[in-house]
Every structure is written in structure tokens, then in C-alpha cells.
Amino acid sequence: MEALYVFCVGVLTFSGIFLCLRGRTFPVVLGLTLLSYAVNLFLFSSGRLRLDGAAILGTSESYTDPLPQALVLTAIVIGFAMIAFVVILAMRARADLGNDFVDGREPPDADQAIKPTRGKI
Amino acid sequence: MTSHLPVLPILIPLFGALFMLLPPFAGPEKYQWRRFATLVLMLLQISCSVSLMLEVIQQGATFYALGNWQAPFGIVLFADRLAVLLVVLNGVLGLGATLYAFAGIDREGKYFHPLLQFQLMGINGAFLTGDLFNLFVFFEILLIASYALLIHGGGKQKTLANVHYVILNLIGSSLFLFALGTLYGTTGTLNIADMALRISQLSAGEQVIAKAGGLLLLIVFGLKAAMLPLHFWLPRTYAAASAPVAALFAIMTKVGIYGIFRVYTVIFGEQAGELADMVQPWIWPLAFLTIIVGAIGALASPNLRHLAANLVVISVGTLLIAFALRTPEATAAGLYYLVHSTLVTGALFLIADMIGQQRGKALDWFVMARKVSQPALLGILFFVAAMTVAGLPPFSGFIGKLIILQSAHSAAEMLWIWPVILIAGLISIIALSRAGTTLFWRYTGDGDKSQLQTLSRWQVSGAVLLLVASPLLVIFGAAVTQYTDAAAAQLHQLQGLFEVMNLQEAAK
């Protein structure tokens, strides 16, 4: 179970960071979302993974740490609000700046790299 | 009532901001009501934090258990001299920014004053909390308020700066949570004092993981504090923000610095066994590089707001040096410098905006433009601010730098610290005098008198309130340094912290 869990968190983090490094706001927003999922799973595991454990005393044989669950709940709420804000901001930036690049302008040589300029025929 | 004092600097702005969203204060035509309410709230908040300061001076550090759950398990606020000093500083800076905003900037958007209060609440909370997870929560509060404040007034530049700022800080928040998860997984606690007790009892394998968590936390604080190489967002963001917001942001980098001082002195301090002082080798070069890059940026700044932002970067580097020295004496010097630099850089942003207002389209760019219409008043304000921030006598910048230089004792430390700080001071003087000559002496014509824009009294009072702190810090220098000495001693004296929170019995 641990290996699978670690793998999931790792892949989510990797994808999140990769998407955060993209040039347009939409992939970056997706990247931030994936990163916050990864963080939530990671925080949850900080109290150790345990099956069939209860967080409330007197309801089960084995217990699990309730604190990470509370932390994850807080982190989810905060992360959700932040993602909502960044989505609105990205739309505002699209309207204000006229494009959806994080830097607010197209990379200067992107066009030229694809089709090099030639003299007029 | 006095037992609830530590929580009041958080509750007053919280409830004040909420009330300002309700009908008697909401709506564009009710701005006079909001201004009055904000003024009352600011004065209330400052008086509460000052009385908390007096209580801490008389009776020593106190802690406040929220919901009366006791220390290692419940969430606590911890008020010692360091935290209380910064809370008072935050109040004064907030008052200056608010007064300045009364001149009309607060009417550019509906929610300026409530957002400002939320931001003050987040900053106060970050200073007062004794719990790492709550530090994260208060960081998020101050950040989301700052996201909205940064874009206040609208415009292309602000949107552009805000996209970078928000994305960077969201990544920073994720890293913060990774670090917290790692530290909680190894030490089993989130209380800063409790963590300090347990960090030395870790096994060798756990120490490696805790070290990774601690270093991740340094990245987060470094991002907030604009430590090299995480400072690239700062000049653009601060230059784009409207003046009172930029002035308030002057304390946001100090929140990161505070985090570094608190976490790496208390948790990873001398008693941490293998992990003691683990970030020190990183901080040394980064501090010097931050100063050097800040100085280069100051010389290259195209306008006064950029220059002020780069001076913030220099002050962050200087504070990191004060941290890296790791003696109570250096910490005390750093605290004095922190108070001075926050207020003066805040004032510099306000002055830049006032100068820009009177130069037409040229704003505060270093180009020939029409004459400033109130050269005497603005000139004096700029001159005092420049002298102070560059560290010339008789103002507080001089004393601040002097005591940091004095706290370097060994020859190697002196060899590195003295030239870097002094040359950075010289470069600041060059950049500021170039700025002053261009802004005040190089103009075309005498300016059109019909377009004369006199400054509002609110603007001048806001800037003067922040500037006047500088001579006061010199006149009452003995009292202030005495206070910062005691604050630094309290920060480095962990036994006192454990005793206040009754942690030692719990550990046994």
C-alpha cells in the first residue's frame, strides 16, 4: 500500500511541477491543482497509513492519528479558495493583457523559430 | 480582559473587516463611514498591541491557549517581546498606509479598507502564533488579502505583476505544506516549542527527513522574504502596487525574515543536536548575494518605485546577515534594523507616489519632466528618507547598520560583512542621489500652474508618520536597543519558552 501511495503522490507532484513550468495560464492552473492534490495526500500520510483505524476513542481496536485529517481538511479548503482565485485572475489577465501567457506577452521568438522569415517574393 | 490581550490584535481587524462588509459601511457612497471605522479600528488595534507590549515587558512572555486547550496539543498564540514588537510595528505601518489611502486611493475599489484589515490580521497572526500549521494559515490569510490588494485599482501592470505573484506564492504554499507534513511526520507535533524539544531526540534516519523538511521551509520563508534566488518577483510586484499597498507590503518580506528567525533559532537552534544551525552555511552566501544583487538592481532602477523595491531587497540581505551571525547581540541589532527599514521603505513608496503625482505623465521615472509643484515639501521628505535608508547619520539607518557591523566579532566575519554592507550603503547613496537630482533639479519649464496638484493633507500625514519614526528611533535609541536586546535574549533563551508553555512536565 505504501509503495502505491508514494507512487501516486510522486506522480501527482511531478505532473504538477511540470505543468506549473508551462507558459500559458491554463496548464499552470491545472498544475497548481495537481500540486495541491499531491500536498493533501502527502499531509494525510504524515500520520502514517493505517487501515481500519478510527480517529475517535472507544470506537475501534486500533487508532489512527486524527490530526493529519484535520490538517488536510484545512489545507483542502484553503487550496480550493486559492485555486478559485487564480482561475478568476487568469481570466482577468486574459481580458486585460489580450493573451493567456503567464508573462503577459508571447515569447518573442516563438513565431520565428517555427517559420523563419524570408525576403518578399 | 488583560488575559485575552494576545488574541485581540487578531480579532479586532477580523471583526472590523467583517463589519465593514455589512450595510452601514458597504456601498460606494459610504466611503466616509468606512474611513472613520478604519481609523477607529487602527487606533484600537495599536492601543491593544501597545498595552500587550507593556504587559510583556512587565511580566515576561505569555501564551494564550485558544479554546483553553493546553500547549502541546491545543493551538496557542505566543506573545514574547519579538512578536509584540512586530505587531506594534505592523499597526504603525498600517496606520500610515491607511492615512495615505484616505486621499482617494481607497475609492478606486469597494473593498480597500476591509482587505487592508484582513491583511493586518494575517500579519499579526503570523507574528503571534506559536504553532507551525497556524503560521501557514495566517500566511494564507495575509496572502489572499495581498493578492486582492495588489490588483486594487486595476490596470495592465498590476494584473501582470499579480499573475506572477499569485502563482509563485501558491507554489510556495504547497511547499510549505510539504515541509509541515515532513516535520509532523518525524516529530509528531506542530507546536514550535514542542518541536524544539523533540528535534534532538530523533533517530539518525528521521534526522535526515527532518532536515529535508527544515530546508524546504527555508525555501518558503526565502520566497516570502525575497532571499536570493527567490527575489525576482519583488521589484516588479512592489513597483506595480498602488502606493499604500506597496508601503504595507514593506512588512511582508519581514514576515519571511521573522519566520527564519523564529524557526531556525527555536527549532533548529543550538539544542537541536545533529541538526543545530543547519541552515547557516546556506544563509551566509545567500545573504551576501542578496545584498549585491539588490545593490545592482538599485543602480539599474528606471524609476523611484523600482529603486525603493530594490532597497527592500538590500535590507532583506542585511537582516539575513544579522541572522547568520547567530548571536543574541546580532539578533538584537537585526531587530533594530528591521523596525527602521520597514518604516522607511514604506515611507519611500509613499513619497515616490507623491512625486509621481506632481510630474504628469512622467510619474516617478528618471526622465526630464515638468517641475514638481511642491519642491520644498517633497524635497525635504525625500531627502530625509534617502539619508535614512542609505544609513547616513544622524538618522536611524546609521545606528541600525552600525550595531550590525559591531556585532561581527571574528576577523573573518568582519572581513566579509563590513565591506559588503558599507559598499551597498555607498551604492544606495549613489542611486538615491541620482534619483533626487533627476526628479527635483532636471525639469523642462516651470510647469503649468493650472494643472497644479497640491498634495492632500492625508498623504503628507501618512508619509510623515512613517518618516518621523526615524529620528524617534535615534532619540529613544537607548530604550529601543535595550528592548531589542531583551527580545533577542528571550528568543535565544529556549528554557524560558518551555517554562512558559509548561512543556517540560508534559515531555517527562
Keyword list:
heterodimer, A: 121 residues, mainly alpha, Helix Hairpins, 4 helices, elongated, B: 508 residues, two-stranded antiparallel ribbon, 22 helices, globular
Tell me what you see in this structure.
The complex is a heterodimer of chains A (121) and B (508). Chain A has helices spanning 2-20, 25-45, 66-97, 110-114. Chain A is elongated. Chain A has a domain at 1-49 and 63-97: Orthogonal Bundle (Helix Hairpins). Helices cover 64% and strands 0% of the residues of chain A. The model of chain A has no long low-confidence stretch (mean pLDDT 86). In chain A, helix 1 packs antiparallel against helix 2 (25-45) and helix 2 (25-45) packs antiparallel against helix 3 (66-97). Chain A is an all-alpha fold and 121 residues long. Chain A contains 4 helices and no strands. Chain B has 508 residues and is an all-alpha fold. Chain B has one domain (2-501). Chain B contains 22 helices and 2 strands. Chain B has helices at residues 8-20, 31-59, 81-101, 112-128, 132-150, 156-187, 192-198, 204-225, 233-240, 243-249, 252-266, 280-300, 304-324, 328-357, 375-390, 396-406, 411-441, 457-467, 469-475, 477-492, 494-500, 503-507, and strands spanning 62-65, 76-79. Chain B has a two-stranded antiparallel sheet with strand order 1-2. The longest helix of chain B has 32 residues, at 156-187. Chain B starts with 7 loop residues before the first helix and ends with a helix. The mean pLDDT of chain B is 88. The chains are: A mainly alpha (121), B mainly alpha (508). Chains A and B meet through helix 2 and helix 3 of A and helix 5 and helix 6 of B. Chain A: It is found in: Cell membrane. Chain A: Belongs to the CPA3 antiporters (TC 2.A.63) subunit C family.
